[in-house]
Amino acid sequence: MKVYTMKGYVPLFVVLFVAVLLSEVSSLMFHLQPTAQKCLREEIHKDVLVSGDYEITEVPGQTVDLAVVDSKGGFLWKKEHAEKGRFTFTTDEYEVYEICFTSKVPHGQRGFPQEVYLSTKHGVEAKSYEGLDEAAKLKPLEVELKRLEDLSEAIVKDFGFMRQREEEMRDTNESTNSRVLYFSIFSMLCLLGLATWQVLYLRQFFKSKKLIE
């Protein structure tokens, strides 16, 4: 099986190898201190499906609120008294998103740290293929081929995005180099002009003092 692109084709083993390198699945565990807030920040592309599974250890009387917010403070997903479950959202634009856990302890009660388990997936990894075989009447092998097709398209998009970022960085470097060159030339001209003015001024000063002819 080969995955075709605009400039040719890529062998399947290359796609799978790159898929492992570009795997967008992350899991972590941390301790949330009482009456504290902990936010996990991540930069995500536009129109990317994101899903997350979370589980928070229970402490009598304590609650944890979970919210997913963008850089403008808008809520993409929110749940109070979160304990265990899953959240999903699709990014509207390319920016930084935050997953925030907020611990709440009743007044007068002693708080205890809580363990938070979080696993997030992006893109194809977050897409669910369960029930696709029944809905589209596809065989298990066809469902797997569909998943590989979506994965290859995601990889091609990632390559295109990286190429675009590389072009933007190259243009920025070239623009910066040009500005530095022009600034250096301007500085040299200013120094030459200042040196010339100093020589002429000193010559005129010494002539006025009749130190030179």
Give a description of the structure.
The chain is an alpha+beta fold and 213 residues long. It has a domain at 24-128: Jelly Rolls. It has helices at residues 12-21, 132-135, 140-208, and strands at residues 2-5, 8-11, 25-32, 37-44, 49-56, 63-69, 75-79, 84-90, 95-104, 114-122. The strands form three sheets. It has a four-stranded antiparallel beta sheet, with no helix packed on it. A four-stranded antiparallel beta sheet has the order 4-9-6-7, with no helix packed on it. A hairpin with a 2-residue loop joins strand 1 and strand 2. The longest helix has 69 residues, at 140-208. It starts with a strand and ends in a 5-residue tail after the last helix. The model is unreliable at 1-23 (pLDDT under 50).
Short description:
This protein has 213 residues and is an alpha+beta fold.
DSSP strand content: 25-35%
By CATH's scheme, which homologous superfamily of the domain at 24-128 applies? icosahedral virus
Largest sheet: 4 strands, antiparallel
CA-CA gap between termini: 92 Å
Keywords: Developmental protein, Membrane, Signal, Transmembrane, Transmembrane helix
Domain GOLD: 37-147
Membrane topology: Single-pass type I membrane protein
Protein name: GOLD domain-containing protein
